[in-house]
Design brief:
The protein is α/β, with parallel strands linked by helices. About 35% of the residues lie in helices and about 15% in strands. The protein folds into 2 domains: about 180 residues, Rossmann fold, CATH 3.40.50; about 170 residues, Rossmann fold (3-Layer(aba) Sandwich), CATH 3.40.50. The longest helix is centred in the C-terminal third of the chain and has 22 residues. The chain binds nicotinamide-adenine-dinucleotide.
C-alpha cells in the first residue's frame, strides 16, 4: 500500500504520525511510505533519518495527499486540508468528530474512509490509542506540578521529595485510572506522600497492591476530599466518566480551605475539568491564580513533549497501520473488532453512533461496507 505522512499543520502541534522505525517496518513489508519534508522536525526526526529507513521525502502536503492511499496523521485535518482529501483515501488519525461539526460535514463530503484513533476500542472497553497520551499526561502532571510549587512561580515553595530532616510534599490524586496511576508512580518516585482517590473499589484494591508504601488509597467522596484539600500541596485532577463531562470534585469554596501556593493540575480539563475554577490554558500561558491557588489546566499536555509523545503514540498505532497496509481496511476491520470500532465515516455515511447522535445524522450499519 502507499502510505502518506503529512506534516501536522494545526498550531502548536509538533508530533508526527510515524517515526523512522515505523517507516522501516512498513518498507520491509514492501509498502511505500511518503513523508512530507520536515514532518518529523518538531519531534526530533530529520528527513535523512526517514530516508535511510526507506521513505521517500516529498516537498509539499499536496504531493503527499495526491500520491497516498492511506494518510496517517496525528490531529484531525484542518480546513486547508479538506480539499486534498479524495474518496479513495483512508484517513487514520485523531478526529474527535463529535466535538466539531464542520469537520464531520467536510469528511462526509469527501467520501473518504475515516478511522478515528480515539474510538478504536478493545473488548475490555479500554482505548489503546488514547492510553499512551494519558500515560504522558499523567507523568507530566507531577513534573509540571513540582515546577509550579516553586516560589518564583507563586507556589508554596516546597520541594516535593523533601530532604533529610524535612518531610516531603503531599500529593492528592483524584481518579486512579491511567493518568492517576502514572501520576502516582512519578510522585511516589520523587518521595512525596501520595493519596489516590477513586470511586471504583476494584481499582483501589489493585492500586493498593501494586503501589509503594508512600501511596495510600481512599474512597472518593466529598467528605474525604474536603478533609484532604486542607493539607495537600499538589492536587491532580484525573477523573473520567466515559461519554460525560467530568464531575466537579473541587468546588470554588474549597479553594479557601487550601494553603496559599497549593498547585492544582486539572488533567481532566479536556472533558470540562473536575475543578470548578478550571478553564483550558495553553503551553504558552499554562497557569493562573484563583484565591492564591495556582491552576495548571493545559488541554494538550503531551504537546509539550513531542519526542516522547510521538514515540508513545506510534508504538500503539504502528501495529494497526501495518495491518491496514497489509490487508486493506475492509479485511483488517473484519479481522479486528477493536479496529472496526474506529470506523466513523465511510463513503459519506456516518457509521459511529456517537457522531450520528451528536449532530442528528443518519447512522449507517458499518457491516454494510465490509
Ligand atoms: N490534558 C491533557 O492533555 C490530557 C491528556 C490525556 C488525558 N486527559 C484526560 O485525563 C482524564 C483521565 O483520563 P484516564 O485515561 O486516566 O481515564 P481512566 O478512565 O483511565 O481513569 C479515570 C478514573 O476516574 C475514576 N473516577 C470516576 N469518577 C470519579 C470520582 N467521582 N472520583 C474519583 N475518581 C473517579 C474512574 O473510576 C477511573 O478509575 C480524561 O478526562 C482524559 O481525557 C487529558
Amino acid at each position: 500500500m502507499i502510505v502518506g505522512v503529512p506534516k501536522e499543520i494545526k498550531s502548536n502541534e509538533n508530533r508526527v504520525a510515524m517515526t523512522p522505525a515505523g517507516v522501516m517496518e512498513l518498507t520491509r513489508k514492501k509498502h511505500t511510505v511518503y513523508i512530507q519534508t520536515d514532518a518529523g522536525e518538531g519531534s526530533g526526526f530529520a528527513d535523512y533519518e526517514y530516508e535511510s529507513a526507506g521513505a521517500v521525502i516529498l516537498p509539499t502536503i499536496e504531493s503527499v495527499y495526491a500520491i497516498a492511499e492511506m494518510i496517517v496523521k496525528v490531529k484531525e485535518p484542518i480546513e486547508s486540508e479538506y480539499a486534498l482529501i479524495r474518496p479513495h483515501h483512508l484517513l487514520f488519525t485523531y478526529f474527535h468528530f463529535a466535538s466539531y461539526q464542520p469537520l464531520t460535514q467536510a469528511m462526509i463530503a469527501s467520501k473518504a474512509t475515516c478511522l478515528a484513533y480515539e474510538t478504536v476500542e478493545m473488548p475490555d472497553r479500554s482505548l489503546p490509542l488514547l492510553i499512551p497520551m494519558s500515560e504522558v499526561a499523567g507523568r507530566m502532571a507531577i513534573q509540571e506540578g513540582a515546577k509550579y510549587l516553586e516560589k518564583p512561580v507563586k507556589g508554596r515553595g516546597i520541594l516535593l521529595g523533601g530532604v533529610p530532616g524535612v518531610p516531603p510534599g503531599k500529593v492528592l490524586i483524584l481518579g486512579g485510572g491511567i493518568v492517576g496511576t502514572q501520576a502516582a508512580k512519578m510522585a511516589a518516585g520523587l518521595g512525596a506522600l501520595v493519596t489516590i482517590l477513586d470511586v471504583n473499589l476494584q481499582r483501589l484494591r489493585y492500586l493498593s497492591d501494586i503501589m509503594p508504601n508512600n501511596v495510600i488509597t481512599m474512597h472518593s467522596n466529598e467528605y474525604n476530599i474536603r478533609q484532604l484539600v486542607v493539607n495537600h500541596d499538589l492536587i491532580v485532577g484525573a477523573v473520567l466518566i466515559p461519554g460525560a463531562k467530568a464531575p466537579r470534585l473541587i468546588t470554588r469554596d474549597m479553594l479557601k480551605m487550601m494553603r496559599p501556593g497549593t498547585v492544582l493540575v486539572d488533567v481532566a480539563v479536556d472533558q470540562g475539568g473536575c475543578i470548578e475554577t478550571c478553564y483550558p490554558t495553553t503551553h504558552d500561558n499554562p497557569t493562573y491564580i484563583v484565591d492564591d491557588v495556582v491552576h495548571y489546566c493545559v488541554a494538550n499536555m503531551p504537546g509539550a513533549v513531542p519526542y516522547t509523545s510521538t514515540i508513545a503514540l506510534t508504538n500503539a498505532t504502528l501495529p494497526y497501520v501495518t495491518l491496514l497496509a497489509d490487508k486493506g481496511w475492509k479485511q483488517a476491520c473484519k479481522q479486528r473488532s477493536d479496529l472496526k470500532l474506529g470506523l466513523n465515516i465511510i463513503n459519506g455515511q456516518v457509521v459511529y453512533k456517537g457522531v450520528a447522535d451528536a449532530f442528528q445524522l443518519p447512522l449507517e450499519e458499518v457491516n454494510r461496507f465490509l
